[in-house]
Write a structure and sequence with these properties.
By secondary structure, the chain is mostly helical. The protein has 5 helices and no strands.
Length: 146
């Protein structure tokens, strides 16, 4: 028997984390020169969006509303991104920023998996693990640009 409240909490975490990834890349992409690096970032954004959409669907199917990232948090994130990229928008610098963000996501995901694995629905935990593995692959892929 799973805890529906745990499912909602974990799904909202996945929803917010993937939203932050997709939205941050949306802010970064216009500042990156065309090429292989930019295409990799577009693919990364697409995967974040797919995970985000899946978490939103699962929340709605369970009768819950999604809790997105609040406007102030988004504005602060975009401001920091824009300031950092005004100084340096090289692939190396962008990769470093994204690796730092992904590492935070990996740590948070692992904590959530340990916290919810025994009480949340196995499909919800599986989606959390998908997000974590995706973040880990992002870090490995981005290391080539450092």
């Amino acid at each position: 028997m799973t805890d529906k409240n745990a499912d909602a909490q974990l799904l909202n975490f996945i929803y917010q984390n993937s939203q932050m990834g997709a939205d941050s890349l949306g802010e970064i992409l216009p500042m990156v020169e065309a090429g292989t690096f930019k295409e990799g970032l577009r693919a990364q954004q697409k995967e974040y969006q797919q995970i985000h959409d899946q978490a939103g669907r699962k929340l709605n199917e369970a009768g819950y509303d999604e809790k997105g990232i609040n406007t102030m948090q988004k504005m602060m994130t975009y401001l920091v991104i824009d300031m950092k990229l005004m100084v340096d928008s090289s692939p190396s610098h962008v990769a470093k920023m994204l690796i730092q963000g992904s590492n935070m996501g990996i740590i948070d995901a692992q904590k959530r998996i340990h916290e919810y694995e025994s009480v949340a629905d196995k499909d919800v935990v599986k989606l959390m693990k998908r997000l974590q593995e995706f973040e880990e692959k992002n870090v490995e892929r981005l290391k080539a640009y450092l």
